Amino acid sequence: MIGLLNPLGLLALASIGVLVALTLFARRTRTAPVSSLILWKQIPSRPLERQRFHPDLLFVLRLLLLLALAGGYVRPYVARSGPGTGGGLAVVLDTSASMEVREAGATRFGLARARLDELVAALPAETPVLLVTAADRPRLALRWTTDRGRLGEQLAKIAPLDTPTALAPAVELALGEASRRDGARVVVLTDLPPSASDLPDAEVARVDWIAIGRRGDNVGITQMTVDAPPFGGPGDVRAAVVVHNFDIAPRTATLEASHDGTPWLRHAVALPPRGEQLVPLGAPPGAGLIRVRVGGGDALAVDDEAVGWVPERPPLDVLLVTESDALGSAFRGLIATVPGGHLEVVNRAGLSERAGGAVRPGAVTVFDRMAPDREDGGGAGVLYVSPPAGNTVCPSLRPVDDASVVDWEPGHPVLAGLVGLDAVEAAHTMQLQAPAWGTVVLTAASRHAAYPFLVVGDLGGRRRACLAAELPPRLAASDTMPLVLLTLATLRWLAEPVTDVPITLATGVPVRVAGHPFASGTDVRATGDPPVVLAERAGVHRMQVAGGSERLVLASLTSETESDVGREGSRDVVRELPATASPSDATGSEGGRRDLSWWFYAAAAALLAIEWLAWGLAG
Questions:
Q1: Domain count within the chain
Q2: Is this prediction's pTM over 0.90?
Q3: For the segment 564-596, what is each residue's pLDDT rounded down to a tens digit?
Q4: Which domain covers residue 22, as residue numbers?
């Protein structure tokens, strides 16, 4: 079937009449040069007789050129036939955490399911349906199908996840699939209004929007912090939470905290309308799991609880391998400031004389200006300070003087508790290169180059760190204090047991962690090496690690956007906004139609070239 996307473009055919008129006028006013007018004056004048219109080659070419331009302007298309056409309904179903809010005796997700069943029941049996779910990412749950039984089975497997909403990518996916079928439409079932979907107005206009939800009386925990100072004891740990009231009325919430299943404290928290409050919890009873919960029977339950971990800080044990007696003496003074700290200093020969080069379990090895390809024995992590050029563990090019930190990775565990990182300077460094096993945590710059300043990662089952700076013998000087604090923070991170420390994260947010690869579970996915972990359910999860051990994953929903479940100005639980544009209104050859306008424009370009040549020959 042939159709026109711009029927009003047919008005352009009126230009043909203009072409005929201009051609006749040009012929009647043509000037012919003669030698004298004497003979012409003796010829009596007579009325100009009507002349017949005789088109020549130039006129035909110009006529064809106008027809080609007009044909392209009306945008003709040919509808495709076959399995790709026939209309259809592309459904975007919101499965984020806020769809668990109860409304009018059912959850928002249940109301969305019921409305979807009504939409599908009203369709002809031969109309295909496509299903896309939207939570932390879009998922193509079911491709185009007319099998209603299969659709029902797939819907029965779907439930809301404890994650924020990424609605825009899911709608774009559905629009893309719908554009491949002539006459297909898109419907979105969500509790978000179109204005909060992060979608352009043009895309919102192409979908049938069904917004579900009215209730907004929600209180949630939007942040939880456990501040454990490096090398501090359990009494130095401080925990705190941020409780947010998303209701338009003031609320009083009961805050309860427990440590390893034992009740710890209980507070009453007064919250202003749509306000928040930071609630200090003080020092937990000891290392282990803490749970914090707010009560009050609000709209959304999943954000009422947050989980965290109080780490156990073992005493710092360091083996320094150096040829500098001055640095060994400075390190002794530095480790002496750490409660329970222990230091052993050896040179390269002394290390090789040890039984197999063994290191005490739990000890961090620090190599000063050396990076052996092979380290024997046990121990915890390894720190390479100013590694020499040409080594294979921490690749470096050449010495560089007068460098300062210019960029860093905020939120990395190595930098926890550190501020003023732009004050870290070093008089002498090595120009590091980022190894394949590491992550660049800090970047430094000198007058001639920018390069990694601190690289951390996991290699051979042990944490490693490469520090570009050369540690000065006088570590207690004020100008070297930022570098000393960075070194202590790196030693603290290296001393942590990799496999025993739980992973604390927010649901729906992927986090790269150090350690061995995980075996993905139902609610937690882990991919890559080093693994990237993503939790889709809040709570405490146990993940199998390569080698048979387990590791805890602590996940909490701490998204203010997702916890803000109220829909201001809404009076209806279910509000339907029909589309104002067709999802198949796409240019080019998308969908079930092939646009032919470019062929007409190409023909017009060719005719223009031919007409120009013919005009030149005629002149």
A1: 5
A2: no
A3: 998 766 778 888 888 887 655 544 444 456 778
A4: 2-31+54-75+596-611
